[in-house]
Write a structure and sequence with these properties.
Blueprint (H helix, E strand, L loop, with lengths): L2 H19 L8 H22 L1
Length: 52
């Protein structure tokens, strides 16, 4: 895993966490949750591609 790739993953994960932390549960809908799950899937794929 290259240092740049690892840094990219860290930045994306940090962005994801900041988004989740700022969410208002009263206004969150299923579309928002689907987007977050898609982002997690992208992160997972990135990690897998780097590990190979």
């Amino acid at each position: 895993m290259t240092k740049d790739s690892l840094e990219e993953i860290k930045v994306k994960l940090n962005d994801f966490m900041e988004t989740i932390d700022s969410v208002d549960p009263e206004t969150t809908d299923i579309h928002d949750i689907d987007e977050w799950l898609a982002l997690l899937d992208q992160l997972e794929q990135k990690v897998k591609s780097i590990q190979q």
